[in-house]
Design brief:
Layout (H helix, E strand, L loop, with lengths): L2 H7 L2 H25 L6 H22 E4 L2 E4 L10 H28 L15 H7 L12 E4 L3 E2 L7 H15 L6 E2 L2 H4 L9 H8 L3 E10 L2 E10 L4 E11 L2 H18 L6 H7 L7 H16 L2 H17 L4 H13 L8 H18 L4 H13 L3 H14 L4 H11 L6 H14 L4 H13 L3 H14 L4 H13 L3 H14 L5 H12 L6 H12 L3 H13 L3 H15 L6 H10 L3 H11 L9 H7 L4 H10 L3 H17 L1 H4 L8 H7 L3 H14 L5 H4 L12 H27 L3
Parallel strand pairs: 3-5, 3-6, 4-6
Antiparallel strand pairs: 1-2, 6-7, 7-8
Helix pairs in contact: 2-3, 2-4, 5-20, 6-9, 6-11, 11-12, 11-13, 12-13, 13-14, 13-15, 14-15, 15-16, 16-17, 17-18, 18-19, 19-20, 19-21, 20-21, 21-22, 22-23, 22-36, 23-24, 23-25, 24-25, 25-26, 26-27, 27-28, 28-30, 29-31, 30-31, 30-33, 31-33, 33-34, 34-36
């Protein structure tokens, strides 16, 4: 008898099969129970180890022993004529069939029971890797001892006019604690959700990922103030420290109380304070109580982020600086609110950033240790494309305010302009998320970063989760619309943009997105309604001219498009980046000399060989585009070198940093180097993947002239037009069903 036949006779093979199927079912049960019973993370790997170790043991026993009516005997002691292995084999066959039936039923239930995440994804299988990318790291992070969430303070005076003061005291304490590098301090946005909550302290701590919780109450009466605080260990629910402060209501006393609370927290949590941090938490920003009250009111209004609230906050900060010109934090408030109001006031964008820069510099002249001021300066440098200095200021802001989530968030905005630094950008957002785990804004930006990295499914999963948890958060709908645009689902893009506009009607940028989406579907007639909606709010807003300029481009009326663009540029303040629009219009009109003049202002790095590398890293899609402009102006040798450098980066480096690198216009490099078939290959890929937004614009460039009239190119254009018609019809059907 062969060895394999002996294995079968002794039922070793059957035992192995039954063991593997049973082990797999046990792992599925372990996964379910771990989530339901909140078992430790180590539980699953322990079960896997036990099952793995058990397999060879089970096989050994199946080989060496036999189960007989008299009990377990060694196989060599059993008379083969009396062996019951055939009967045991039949029982094992039945067991295997039952286990397989259970396994198949589980797989079918798991597949059919999952919910679709969006209109377009019903029935799609969710990739486990995508889900993993969409999960927040904050929930997975190990909770360290030096971590705290300061819950909103209770207003014990019960006077509405004191609410801003109490909330401001709480906000100021958070700012003070955020300066301590060894402490993890949860930001205001996340803790604000627990105001007047009845959720138990341990549950709050778990949701926020901290080891300690601070509660407090403030009572203001006349010229006296009482502040009651208590620090609680979340695991044991025991008080680590508590204090009641009864003081005369002066700025000196208020700041002294905040400093003492900060020191006590640091001591209780065994956090080390550097001399610089010690100085920062002992700082006395102002001695003027009225200025401080105006500053606190401004902080609370700014936190609401509405345009009207921001305008009121800006006035309160200005009042604070009038009462105390040396109040550095109030100057920071002016810088931040002015920046946040950019594009929503009559100020041009250059005027806006000039005010931001002036206010931030005034703050630093008073106190050069304010991370928030460096952050505002970083945004000014970023706007002016002084990237090296911008990064210096971003890093300085984080160094001085390591617990300030906004610093990590805005630094990420800077980093995601460079595809080769996209993973750094996501890392900064994860740090911001750790400090502000319930912030819808940060979750939205994580979704955006996943989209930029080409993880479209993961981004969609996260956005659907965000809209379920915060259904009134308009930016999530806008980001979902951007994702639809990136993947060619323009009809769905319109739906999401409309939802965003309904929640945030004052966001004029949404109308520009709608314009592109509608033109991508060939629905020029619908622009009349877009212009009407803008006019109903402000017929002199720059968005009106931008829509008209795009409409004229679509109609190939480039003279009219140029006139509208000039008006928009004037409204925005003639800033250099807008010259890109003029460059495109001139290029479409085949005025190559004026096109290059415009692009040299908007993208000067592409017209200096020494800065080509940095230009390509920031805007890899523009390299061969700019080379085309150069070639049409007689700079053939320079153009060829730029094409070679750009094509090398696109083919050999960019795919290492992001997925779906085919979003970038490789075909322009191929057309410039005479590789027309490769250009068509790429165009067919971007259509298949949905990466062809603004097709009505770029397809009219003379760069694409070698492809026009060819069978493949004309067939592709027809497919795009057919898809556009189908999407128009689908949108009309959705509108009809919604009663629109």
């Amino acid at each position: 008898m062969s060895f394999f036949e002996e294995l079968r006779r002794r039922n070793v093979v059957r035992v192995g099969i039954a063991y593997v199927i049973g082990g797999w079912l046990l792992l599925q049960l372990t996964d379910v129970l771990s989530e339901l019973l909140n078992l430790p993370e180590e539980f699953g790997p322990i079960v896997v180890a036990i099952i793995t170790i058990g397999l060879p043991i089970a096989l050994f026993f199946a080989w060496a022993f036999e189960l007989t009516p008299e009990g377990v005997k060694r196989e060599k002691d059993v008379d083969r004529s009396q062996s019951v292995t055939p009967d045991t084999g039949k029982k094992l066959n039945n067991t295997i069939l039952v286990l397989m039936a259970v396994a198949i039923a589980y797989l079918l239930f798991d597949k059919m029971g999952s919910e679709p995440f969006s209109q377009d994804s019903a029935g799609q299988e969710i990739n486990a890797e995508d889900e993993k990318k969409a999960l927040t790291l904050a929930n997975e992070a190990v909770i360290k001892r030096q971590s705290i969430a300061v819950l909103p303070f209770e207003n014990r005076s019960n006077r509405e006019e004191d609410e801003f003061f109490v909330a401001g005291m709480h906000d100021d304490l958070l700012t003070n604690l955020a300066r301590i590098g060894s402490l993890k301090v949860i930001s205001r946005t996340s803790v604000a959700r627990y105001k007047n909550t009845e959720i138990p302290i341990p549950m709050i701590a778990k949701e926020l990922g901290v080891a300690t919780i601070m509660e407090g109450a403030v009572q203001r009466a006349g010229n006296m103030v009482r502040i009651n605080v208590q620090l609680i260990d979340a695991e044991t629910d025991e008080h680590l420290w508590a204090e009641i402060f009864d003081r005369e209501l002066t700025t000196e006393n208020l700041f002294a109380i905040q400093s003492e609370i900060s020191r006590e927290i640091a001591t209780a949590l065994e956090a080390t304070l550097s001399p610089q941090e010690q100085k920062a938490i002992n700082d006395r920003p102002t001695e003027n109580l009225a200025a401080y009250n105006a500053y606190l009111l401004g902080r609370q209004l700014m936190a609401r982020r509405g345009v009207e609230d921001l305008a009121r906050a800006q006035k309160e900060f200005q009042r604070a600086t009038e009462l105390d010109p040396d109040f550095a934090l109030a100057w920071v408030g002016i810088a931040e609110t002015t920046g946040l109001l950019s594009g929503n006031t009559r100020l041009t964008i250059p005027e806006t950033y000039s005010i931001v820069e002036d206010a931030a510099n005034k703050a630093l002249a008073i106190n050069d240790q304010l991370g928030e001021a460096y952050l505002s300066l970083a945004m000014v440098e970023y706007f002016n494309a002084r990237n090296d200095q911008a990064e210096v200021n971003f890093r300085k802001a984080i160094e001085l305010s390591p617990g300030y989530a906004t610093a990590f968030e805005w630094y990420s905005d800077f980093l995601d302009d460079f595809p080769h630094r996209s993973h750094e950008a996501l890392e900064m957002l994860r740090k911001a998320e750790e400090l502000d785990p319930l912030s819808s804004n940060i979750q939205n930006k994580i979704a955006n970063q996943l989209k930029l990295q080409g993880h479209f499914r993961a981004a969609e999963i996260l956005l659907n989760k965000l809209m379920q948890s915060d259904p009134d958060f308009a930016p999530a709908y806008q980001e979902m619309a951007s994702l639809m645009s990136t993947t060619g689902r323009f009809d769905e893009e319109v739906v999401w943009l409309r939802k965003a506009s309904k929640l945030d009607p004052g966001n004029f940028g949404l109308y520009i997105g709608l314009t592109f989406a509608l033109l991508n579907m060939g629905d020029q007639e619908a622009l009349a309604d877009i212009k009407r909606q803008i006019a109903d709010q402000d017929d002199q807003h720059w968005a009106m001219g931008w829509v008209e300029s795009l409409e004229s481009m679509y109609q190939k009326n480039y003279a009219a498009s140029l006139e509208s663009a000039k008006w928009v540029n004037q409204q925005l303040g003639n800033f250099p980046q807008f010259q890109n629009v003029f460059g495109w219009v001139y290029l479409l009109n085949q005025d190559y000399q004026k096109a290059q003049q415009a692009f040299e202002i908007a993208s000067p790095r592409y017209f200096d060989r020494s800065t080509w590398r940095s230009a390509i890293e920031a805007d890899p899609g523009d390299g061969c585009f700019m080379a085309f402009v150069m070639s049409r102006n007689g700079e053939v040798a320079l153009s060829t070198d730029l094409v070679n450098m750009t094509q090398s980066y696109l083919e050999n480096e960019l795919p290492n940093y992001i997925e779906h690198a085919d979003r970038y216009p490789y075909e322009r490099c191929y057309l410039m180097s005479g590789q027309n078939d490769k250009a068509m290959d790429h165009l067919e890929i971007i259509f298949e993947h949905g990466h062809y937004t603004a097709w009505w614009l770029w397809s009219n460039l003379s760069l694409y002239e070698p492809l026009r009239g060819t069978e493949r190119f004309e067939a592709l254009m027809q497919k795009i037009r057919t898809t556009a018609a189908d999407q128009r019809a689908n949108l009309a059907q959705m509108d009809a069903e919604a009663g629109l």
